[in-house]
Automatic annotation (TrEMBL):
<feature type="domain" description="TGS">
    <location>
        <begin position="382"/>
        <end position="443"/>
    </location>
</feature>
<comment type="function">
    <text>In eubacteria ppGpp (guanosine 3'-diphosphate 5'-diphosphate) is a mediator of the stringent response that coordinates a variety of cellular activities in response to changes in nutritional abundance.</text>
</comment>
<dbReference type="InterPro" id="IPR007685">
    <property type="entry name" value="RelA_SpoT"/>
</dbReference>
<dbReference type="InterPro" id="IPR012675">
    <property type="entry name" value="Beta-grasp_dom_sf"/>
</dbReference>
<dbReference type="GO" id="GO:0042594">
    <property type="term" value="P:response to starvation"/>
</dbReference>
<dbReference type="InterPro" id="IPR003607">
    <property type="entry name" value="HD/PDEase_dom"/>
</dbReference>
<dbReference type="InterPro" id="IPR002912">
    <property type="entry name" value="ACT_dom"/>
</dbReference>
<dbReference type="GO" id="GO:0008893">
    <property type="term" value="F:guanosine-3',5'-bis(diphosphate) 3'-diphosphatase activity"/>
</dbReference>
<dbReference type="InterPro" id="IPR006674">
    <property type="entry name" value="HD_domain"/>
</dbReference>
<dbReference type="InterPro" id="IPR004095">
    <property type="entry name" value="TGS"/>
</dbReference>
<dbReference type="Pfam" id="PF19296">
    <property type="entry name" value="RelA_AH_RIS"/>
</dbReference>
<dbReference type="InterPro" id="IPR045865">
    <property type="entry name" value="ACT-like_dom_sf"/>
</dbReference>
<feature type="domain" description="HD">
    <location>
        <begin position="45"/>
        <end position="144"/>
    </location>
</feature>
<dbReference type="InterPro" id="IPR045600">
    <property type="entry name" value="RelA/SpoT_AH_RIS"/>
</dbReference>
<dbReference type="InterPro" id="IPR043519">
    <property type="entry name" value="NT_sf"/>
</dbReference>
<dbReference type="Pfam" id="PF02824">
    <property type="entry name" value="TGS"/>
</dbReference>
<dbReference type="GO" id="GO:0008728">
    <property type="term" value="F:GTP diphosphokinase activity"/>
</dbReference>
Length: 697
């Protein structure tokens, strides 16, 4: 563990003007506050924040960040408060400490909710000042280094999984590859102990048997480049176990089939030397086509710059080579932390493009599971590059579609998407993009995100925006139904209902807005009787609970303009279509379910809270279900399909439900315009010699 004077000396080495007194106060404060607390390893607890501060000095970060690292657990694990931190160390340090600190009030939440809420708070704080992330990554790295001391295997697995899913990818996204690699390896050891042990043993065997082969290859490369007048540093290593395991899993190969286990890094003096070195290597050794990547001309979103290639050394050995300058190497290993020299007064704003996307996801995510899912997607590592027609470059996860691209360009563009051109050709929105694709998004003024898009989009930003738009539309349409129902309810009370009565009712029901009340009524989250009582207290006295007269007005409610599946649900039991006489059944939190008036489910008395509904003028489109019995002979199925085609109907599903020679019975779901359309199809089926019987199911 670093001693107090050693920590201060480290900071003074790269920042002679650092406030030594503040650093000393922070060190003493954390020692005093943590007192006799110990870690699972038995070490004093304060050794952890001191080691995290040491990691921050390796990154040459400013004094506020070092103080934050020392104090980051005091608010969570001691009696210290944010106000105490601000009083003793200033507003800046207090804000950073608060960003890293977990909320104490969420400690009683279920595990997934707690993790999501911590992540939400952390991402929001990180967006204001990226130093929050740097301290958090240092904190997580040191915790992973000591993870083996935790006795509970389930807790070790949980922490390792969280590290693999969230913190290692975050380290990669800010370019801190050194942190990322170590986190991945430590998490991999816990999550896949057998695989880790096997690969580690094989690497040890290779190391013992290669007879210094790695050093020999590195020396060969250095000599070849030196002969061309290039001054370079060459180093070689085996890939770490997690990298090898992931490659085995992705390619479905064994350890023996992973041929590029060795990787070499060449450090040059300039960018020109990088390209010269690449050309010399490719002329000296055979390179593998398709494995060359130029991250210098097209850097990754995290600022990573390097040339990558794979060579065949000797007769069959494949080796990976990375070529970069010294400045690139520093940036590639420590990412954002390498850019800012705080001693010069520079401050990061944290407003990196992908970080803004994360904040959009935080705002749009509806529940903990969504937040965790979308965040994992947003920090997904394997990327592809695609361009707008004007040449703007966007990086997306592999498997991204045109819709993902649209949301990456701008959330509003994604919401208005109606089509896409990929490399000049009209393509389906679900088309997956490839490296170098040029994507033109076609938009419409009245377009809106579709629920079906969730079946193929892969980016967290797109999924969060689509779900949010669908939720808002659903709420608006349910509230519209609730508004109509409210007018009926208000007509039953013995008084004229004005604005004042509504305001008073909202107070009695402890609601903020009228829309909250309308939504609650439409979603059946509040009983009509309770609404009447809130409007005119005492007006329902003497009414029996089973007295339905005061629940009905006899006026039908139109569902015109509402969206099936959003504002209301069409019942699966009877498949009503426009033109059918319909009623609605209100179910708590699921809105109105629409049934045909003669539905057998209604006859069974599943619910007495029925609404008299009407389709409204020009209501079009629904799925009707038919039960068709065909003669069991060749060509009858084709004849039925021909009838559907002549009547311009889309078959949604076709299922054989009974085989009773010489008959075969099918249930067919058809996308029809209205009852008249469905009736014409039934008439055509009944007139056919291929059909024995046709009825609505």
């Amino acid at each position: 563990m670093l001693r107090q004077y050693e920590l201060v000396e480290r900071v003074k080495e790269y920042d002679p003007d650092a406030d030594e007194a503040m650093l000393n106060r922070a060190y003493v404060y954390t020692v005093q506050k943590h007192g006799t607390q110990t870690r699972a390893s038995g070490d004093p607890y304060f050794s952890h924040p001191v080691e995290v501060a040491g990691l921050m000095t390796d990154l040459k970060l400013d004094q506020e960040t070092i103080a934050t690292a020392l104090l980051h657990d005091t608010v969570e694990d001691t009696l210290a408060t944010i106000e105490d931190i601000e009083l003793n160390f200033g507003t800046d340090v207090a804000r950073l400490v608060d960003g890293v600190t977990k909320l104490s009030k969420i400690e009683q939440m279920p595990e997934n909710e707690r993790a999501a809420e911590n992540l939400r708070k952390f991402l929001l704080a990180m967006s204001e000042d990226i130093r929050v992330l740097l301290v958090k990554l240092g904190d997580r790295l040191h915790n992973m280094r000591t993870l083996g001391f935790i006795k509970n295997p389930e807790k070790r697995q949980r922490i390792a999984r969280e590290t693999m899913d969230i913190y290692a990818p975050l380290a990669e996204r800010v370019g801190m590859y050194e942190y990322m690699r170590e986190m991945q390896m430590l998490a991999f050891e816990q999550l896949e102990p057998e695989a880790f042990e096997t690969i580690t043993q094989r690497l040890d065997q290779i190391r013992q048997q290669d007879g210094g082969q790695v050093d020999a290859i590195a020396l060969d490369m250095k000599h070849a480049l030196a002969e061309a007048g290039l001054t370079v540093e060459v180093s070689g290593r085996e890939k770490h176990p997690y990298s090898i395991w992931r490659k085995m899993a992705e390619r479905h190969v064994s350890f023996e089939q992973v041929t590029d286990i060795m990787a070499f890094r060449i450090i040059t003096e300039s960018v020109d030397d990088c390209y010269r070195a690449m050309g010399l290597l490719h002329t000296t050794w055979q390179f593998l086509p398709g494995r060359f990547k130029d991250y210098i001309s097209t850097p990754k979103t995290n600022g990573y710059r390097s040339l990558h290639t794979s060579l065949i050394y000797g007769k069959s050995m494949r080796v990976e080579v990375q070529i970069r300058t010294r400045e690139m190497h520093r940036t590639n290993e420590f990412g954002l932390a390498a850019h800012w020299a705080y001693k010069q007064g520079d401050r990061p704003d944290g407003q990196v493009g992908w970080l803004r996307d994360l904040i959009e996801i935080v705002d749009a995510s509806h529940d903990p599971e969504e937040l965790l899912e979308h965040t994992r997607m947003a920090i997904y590592q394997d990327r592809i590059f695609a361009f707008t027609p004007k040449g703007a470059l966007f990086q997306l996860p592999k498997g991204s579609t045109a819709v993902d691209f649209a949301f990456a360009v701008h959330t509003d563009l994604g919401a208005q998407t109606v089509g896409a051109k990929i490399n000049g050709r009209h393509m389906p929105l679900r088309t997956q993009l490839h490296n170098g694709d040029v994507v033109e998004i076609l938009k419409g003024k009245n377009a809106e995100p579709q629920m079906s898009w969730l079946g193929f989009v892969v980016t967290g930003k797109a999924r969060a925006a689509i779900r949010r738009a669908v939720r808002l539309k659903e709420r608006a349409e349910v509230a519209e139904i609730g508004t109509k129902l409210f007018d009926e309810i208000a007509s039953r009370v013995p008084a004229k209902i004005g604005k004042k009565a509504v305001r008073d009712a909202l107070k009695r029901l402890e609601m903020e807005e009228e829309d909250d009340l309308y939504y609650a009524i439409g979603a059946a989250n509040i009983a009509d009787r309770d609404v009447m009582e809130a409007l005119v207290p005492g007006c329902t006295e003497g009414m029996a609970d089973d007295d339905a007269e005061w629940l009905r007005s006899g006026k039908s409610l139109s569902i015109r303009g509402l969206t099936p599946g959003v504002g209301y649900q069409l019942a699966e039991c009877c498949h009503p279509v426009p033109g059918d006489r319909i009623v609605g059944v209100r179910k708590p939190s699921s809105g109105v379910e629409v049934h045909a008036i003669d539905c057998h489910e209604l006859a069974s008395g599943i619910d007495t809270d029925w609404l008299d509904l009407s389709w409204g003028k020009s209501s079009r489109g629904a799925v009707g279900r038919l039960r068709v019995t065909l003669y069991d002979r060749p060509g009858t199925l084709a004849e039925m399909a021909g009838i559907f085609a002549k009547n311009v109907v889309n078959v949604k599903s076709l299922e054989q439900v009974q085989l009773d020679h010489p008959f075969t019975t099918y249930e067919v779901d058809l996308e029809v315009q209205d009852l008249a359309h469905l009736t014409r199809i039934l008439s055509a089926l009944r007139a056919s010699d291929a059909v024995a019987q046709a009825e609505r199911a």
